[in-house]
Amino acid sequence: MSSTKNASLAQARKKTQPEEFDLVILGGGTGSTIAAWTFAAEGKQVAVVDRKYIGGSCPNIACLPSKNIIHSAKVAAYFRRSKEFGITHDGFAIYMADVRERKRRMVRGLNDSAGGAGGGFRMDRRWYH
């Protein structure tokens, strides 16, 4: 076997080695996340397992993303009424692709910082299919 093939086999074996945890929490909703942070703060090795969203649906697809889009609509409404406030403009356009991208950036930012939101704990995301 070539050294490249040996390295690939070693990496594959390393990824399949069992890991030990003090606590495994099934479901990644808000309560699970808070529980994980609490036990991790006590020095426990904690794993949170969810099929899709760590943090639950609210920060990922429901509450917060909806409020993000509603805020964009409010800004557009204020801008449309700007003459009432003594502000003139030559018109404007709403680019929904940009509104959606702003929402996606917010969700990504929440997910990227989720490990730090509970006191700087490392969050290791692994995706298995």
Question: How many H/I helices?
Answer: 5
Indicate the structural class: mainly alpha
- Structural shape: elongated
Number of separate strands: 2
The Rg value, from CA coordinates, equals 22 Å
* Uncertain runs: 115-120
For the record, give the distance between the C-alpha atoms at the N and C termini, rounded to a whole number.
28 Å
Notes on the structure:
- With 129 residues, the protein is mostly helical.
- It contains five helices and two strands, in the order αβαβααα.
- A two-stranded parallel ribbon has the order 1-2.
- It is elongated.
- Mean pLDDT is 82; it is low at 115-120.
Short description:
The protein is mainly alpha-helical and about 130 residues long.
Characteristics:
5 helices, 129 residues, two-stranded parallel sheet, 2 strands, 53% helix, mainly alpha, elongated
